[in-house]
Amino acid sequence: MSQISSICNSLKKAQASLALHTAAQKNHALQCVADAIAANADHIISANKMDLEAARQRGMSEALLERLMLDQKRIDSIVKSMGVVINQTDPLGEVTGGWTTPAGLQIRQVRVPLGVVCIIYESRPNVTVDAFCLAYKSGNAILLRGSSSALKSNKALIHVIKEGLKNAGFDGIEDAVELAEPAADHSDVQEILTARGLIDCVLPRGGAKLIQNVVQNARIPVIETGAGVCHLFVDESADQETACKIADNAKTQRPGACNAIECILVHQKIAFNFLPKLVEQLGDRVELRCDDKSYAIIGYSKKGRVVRGTDADFGFEFLDDIMAVHVVADVNEAIEYINSHSTKHSESICTNDRANARAFQAQIDSACVYVNASTRFTDGGEFGFGAELGISTQKLHARGPMGIKALTTTKYLIDGDGQIR
User: What is the tens place of the pLDDT at every residue in 9-38?
Assistant: First the structure.
């Protein structure tokens, strides 16, 4: 039996036990884990520093290093997020529907765990805790397959998580979470993707290459999370000062995040006024890769980093301090452009035209569509979920930030008194 098969069999047994635990038992176990993470912050941060140093030596960009980094502030945020999940209502056993058939059968549709889930993710060691916490609360066992760049951080976190579960006594099930060490040839990923009967669902979370590999090769159910080619459209009626601030936040607050914008669209009637203001707002912090129309307006700016873009820059996830710029005729062209270039993650419009705002929200085919707000709010914590497994860009089962209910399904419970058909 392979290592992955052995781990999955152990997870299945653990999940069967976890499914019988009450909400109070799961909450106690999760609180013990949160306490253990807080108490072992120095150990976790020390391991993370080794990952960061190795990543720097390999030439990882600053934006991606920022995604990899853990410090005391982020440890505190992880613990706080766990507290939010702990305080949420346990979804298991929720009756989502019920009725009596003409034959007198009493039917209830109730919420149950998915079973054994796996998440394959890049960098972001905070995902290790978020995914475990959401899975445990929703009664699932979870296999975590992080990247080699975060291996020391993930090992430290899993050690502490298991320590916390052990501290919970009977309420903690240590075998409900396991870390798969990445193989150099990625053979472990292929084994995970073909683990029919052992893994009930897999979630990819990372760049486009990882996601497409999982979607194209999996023989088990996939909840697809999308790379983040997000857009901001500045409409003719927009408050331009507000639009500049939103663009700044959506691009620069965390440029390596999937909810950062990669392209800004500008209505042609305000382009001559707005684009110089945008350059002034961003300064040298962001490189603007312009289409012909926008380059004609700001191409010779001495205040910012402005270059002529290529076709490859539009519809591309930079994950860096780079943003494409495109001028459009109107809201209809903006909608058409976004729907043909986005990854169906998050899009935003800045406008004071209510009709354009509603048209944008109705016609944009993405998981999250904003009016006069930054796309950086597409996040489980910001949505009130405490943590998230990722941002689902598919249309079945779950869409947008995924909290505890995204790791559940339903089954029907039918009571009768001797009916036959």
Answer: 999 999 999 999 999 999 999 999 999 999
The per-residue pLDDT for 63 is: 81
Gap between the Cα atoms of 256 and 260, Å rounded: 7
The pTM of this model reads 0.87
CA atoms of 284 and 202, how far apart (whole Å):
41
Cα–Cα distance measured from residue 390 to residue 258, given in angstroms and rounded to the nearest whole number: 10
Query: Is pLDDT above 90 for 397?
Result: no
Between the CA of residue 167 and those of 13, 86, 136, 222, what are the distances in Å? 20, 17, 16, 33
User: Over the range 383-402, which residues count as b (16 or more CB within 10 Å of their CB) and which as e?
Assistant: eebbbbbbbbbeeeebbbbb
Alpha carbon separation from 177 to 35, 110, 173, 370, 405 (Å, rounded): 17, 25, 8, 36, 19
Summarize pLDDT for 248-269 with one digit per residue, the tens.
Answer: 999 999 998 899 999 999 999 9
Cβ–Cβ < 8 Å for 326, 342: no
Q: How long is the chain?
A: 421
Tell me how far apart the alpha carbons of residues 248 and 108 are, in angstroms, rounded to a whole number: 49
CA angle 411, 414, 420 (to 5 degrees): 135
